[in-house]
Design the sequence.
């Protein structure tokens, strides 16, 4: 295969890098060989589940290189300092040095953990992101954010560390459970809302094919959604302005996840309800019509994503407590809440002008009356 034939979008940030779409895992070795003459040692970092499914396919491309595979259990709790320390010890045992190249093979957890490892090991070694979840393909592998969690906070210790390339093999999504697909769909629909009305319409018209996982339709959706993220981080890699738009729905979503102690709510469900709450707030501020809010709700529901808190828990949530949770949002400035609001469909704005009463009213709209 010629790499020139692969679908590719370029992140044009300080240090540009390509995002290859529909790139077979087996071909990554040959691509790296063509890019890095000094490549001797490769460290693949993955989780147990993804290793069993895809590590052999990836390794095929590295027949003449020294390859070590380090794996961790699956799950968010692996994004820890303890795991980072263990990875470092294991990497040294494998003879890793400053010329080693790391491949993060997995979802967002592995991308963040292996990425942070690569950013810090011997003050930074080469990194390739090979995302295998929908969320990782359209979102976390692009943009260079890497991090681990501490008891003090999620993603509290991290870096901007762009990979040398993102290598996205769509076929890995075939094995992804629907619950994980939903997490990625919530982010993809968010991308459409922020910047691509055509993508939103694509979701509406192709919903059946998407639910059936039609490969061509999926390919187009993942490509278009990735392109939104590439476009935004290319303009604002370090989140000084426009990149904040990617937080649409997340201030509400995080508040809900925290209030529910991360139990009984997935990230995708939190984002989905957060998108609806943000839409209600936007409607109150004259940025959206009732019909547009209903369109968003209908689309989310079509894919099994909730639009009211009552759909995911029978425990009644207190809007005031949810508002209180937003007090500590990282985006707040000088005590003021900074919120991302949709402006119609396909556009979003950063708003510093939302009052607590307006936010409370938005929460009330997504707390089910049942
Ligand atoms: N760096 C960023 O910009 C950024 C952006 C968004 C989210 N994130 C982070 O991403 C993480 C969530 O990522 P995620 O949703 O991908 O979860 P994940 O990495 O935990 O993966 C979800 C599950 O899917 C399994 N899996 C992965 N690929 C599979 C495949 N192809 N087939 C079958 N199973 C597969 C994994 O083993 C895991 O059990 C969070 O830690 C979040 O903070 C980072």
Sequence:
């Amino acid at each position: 295969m010629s790499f020139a034939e692969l679908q590719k979008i370029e992140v044009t940030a300080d240090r540009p890098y390509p995002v290859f779409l529909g790139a077979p895992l087996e071909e990554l070795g040959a691509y790296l060989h063509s890019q890095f003459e000094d490549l001797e040692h490769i460290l693949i970092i993955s989780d147990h589940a993804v290793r069993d499914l895809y590590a052999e396919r990836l390794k095929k491309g590295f027949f003449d290189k020294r390859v070590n595979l380090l794996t961790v259990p699956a799950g968010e709790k692996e994004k820890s300092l303890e795991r980072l320390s263990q990875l470092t010890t294991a990497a040294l045992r494998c003879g890793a040095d400053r010329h080693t190249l790391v491949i993060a093979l997995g979802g967002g957890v592995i991308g963040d953990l292996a990425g942070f490892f690569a950013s810090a090991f011997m003050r930074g070694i080469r990194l390739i992101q090979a995302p295998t979840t929908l969320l990782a393909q359209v979102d976390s592998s692009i943009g260079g954010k890497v991090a681990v969690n501490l008891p003090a906070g999620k993603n509290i210790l991290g870096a901007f560390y762009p990979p040398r390339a993102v290598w996205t093999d769509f076929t890995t999504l075939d094995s992804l459970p629907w619950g994980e697909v939903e997490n990625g769909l919530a982010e993809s629909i968010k991308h459409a809302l922020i910047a691509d009305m055509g993508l939103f319409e694509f979701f509406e018209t192709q919903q059946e094919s998407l639910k059936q996982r039609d490969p061509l339709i999926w390919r187009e959706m993942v490509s278009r959604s990735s392109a939104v993220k590439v476009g935004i981080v290319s303009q604002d890699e370090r989140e000084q302005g426009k990149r904040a738009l990617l937080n649409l729905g997340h201030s509400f979503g995080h508040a809900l996840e925290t209030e529910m102690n991360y139990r009984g709510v997935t990230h995708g469900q939190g984002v989905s309800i957060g998108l609806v709450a943000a839409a209600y707030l936007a409607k109150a501020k004259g940025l959206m019509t009732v019909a547009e809010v209903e369109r968003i709700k209908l689309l989310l529901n079509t894919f099994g994503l909730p639009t009211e808190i009552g759909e995911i828990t029978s425990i009644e949530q207190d809007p005031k407590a949810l508002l209180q949770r937003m007090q500590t949002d990282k985006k707040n400035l000088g005590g003021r809440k900074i919120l991302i609001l949709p402006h119609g469909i396909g556009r979003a704005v950063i708003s510093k002008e939302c009052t607590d009463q307006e936010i409370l009213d938005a929460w009330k709209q997504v707390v089910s009356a049942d």
Q: What stands out?
A: The pocket of nicotinamide-adenine-dinucleotide is lined by residues 47, 49-50, 53, 74, 76, 79, 106-110, 112, 132-133, 135-136, 139-140, 143, 145, 155, 172, 175-176, 180, 183 (CB under 6 Å).
